[in-house]
Design brief:
- The protein has 8 helices and 10 strands.
- The protein has a 6-stranded mixed sheet with strand order 2-1-7-10-8-9, with helices on both faces.
- Strand 8, helix 3 and strand 9 form a beta-alpha-beta unit.
- Helix 7 packs antiparallel against helix 8.
- The longest helix is centred in the last third of the chain and has 22 residues.
- The relative contact order is 0.18.
- It binds zinc ion (ZN).
- Zinc ion binds next to loops.
- The site of zinc ion has 4 residues, from loops.
């Protein structure tokens, strides 16, 4: 199984879930591949005019660690200029020029393309060469977005996503959505079409995204508490349950980790008979109780 964190470095639950897997997961059956900073270049900048912080902090059992908060897109220092219109190479699909640097519009990628396409090509090639059976791309979306608290599955992975729901629905609200066949460049479409992997993507609700939040700082990124989003929720303007208690980074990571554990466990029922086990991982409740920092390594 391959887990991609940091496709969009302004969506920290994917990145921190990937770091937590590296630091506390000991798979007992199968191989777990983790890429925590899929678009490493996008970790080196923030989105223009968003006043986003360069980093955020998480308390571990033995001190505070800081992590980079980045941009949705490849740093323009590494790839510039954008064309007026971004033409997706293998489909001819046309999108806004700003999507040229969006890793999740670049798949399956090109060996001789721009940097973002080369990163996508590298990940696609890794999946092919290592025969990776499940790929999960971890994301976040703003609380008002329609695809949030969701698993998006390529049609080949729909069965696995649906079986995973049997367990996780007992303690979280989550839906499964089928990957649209006419939206190109995304992991849940192209990795499923161009490789044999079961391609899945997950979205949690991040109050530091979207257009309704107040000041973005480390506190907002980690606590997920924003009074403007709480107010917007009262007007029915958000698509997930949201109140003054916010949706913490720990809760968002707990969602990702619980679903990953289930994808691994349930794979035996849908695959070719092989199985994957991530070993002893903290439960959803454990992560909520202890905080995600409890499962991260100490600073230094
Ligand atoms: Zn994203």
């Amino acid at each position: 199984m391959l887990v991609l964190g940091g496709t969009h470095p302004n969506e920290p639950s994917g990145f921190i879930t990937a770091v937590a897997l590296i630091e506390c997961c000991q798979p007992t059956v199968g191989t777990l591949y983790v890429i925590p900073r899929a678009n490493n270049s996008a970790f080196t900048c923030t989105d223009p005019q968003e006043a986003a912080p360069m980093n955020f902090t998480i308390d571990t059992q033995n001190g505070t660690r800081w992590f980079r908060f980045g941009s949705r897109a490849t740093n323009p220092v590494d790839q510039w200029p954008d064309s007026e219109v971004y033409v997706h190479a293998s489909s001819g699909q046309q999108l806004s020029g700003s999507e040229t640097r969006n890793l999740n519009r670049a798949y399956p990628g090109r060996a001789d393309g721009n940097l973002t396409e080369k990163i996508a090509y590298g990940i696609t090639t890794l999946i092919q060469q290592e025969d990776i059976e499940i790929t999960v791309d971890l994301h976040e979306a703003s609380p008002e977005y329609t695809t949030v608290n969701a698993i998006v599955a390529h049609e080949d992975a729909l069965e696995l996503a649906s079986i995973a729901l049997w367990d996780v629905e007992d303690y979280m609200a989550i839906t499964v959505e089928k990957s649209p066949t006419n939206l190109h460049g995304l992991t849940h479409r192209e990795l499923g079409d161009y490789t044999d992997t079961l391609a899945l993507l997950m979205e949690t609700a991040n109050a530091s995204q979207g257009r309704l939040h107040g000041k973005i700082d480390s506190e907002l990124v980690v606590s997920g508490k924003d009074k403007y989003y709480a107010r917007a929720a009262k007007y029915g303007a958000v698509t997930v349950p949201y109140d003054e208690t916010g949706i913490s980074l720990s809760e968002r990571c707990a969602r990702h980790i619980s679903c990953l554990v289930q994808f691994a466990e349930q794979y035996a029922f849908v695959g070719d008979g092989t199985s994957i086990s991530l070993g002893s991982m903290p439960s959803y409740k454990d992560i909520l109780t202890n905080g995600i920092g409890y499962y991260l390594a100490d600073p230094q």
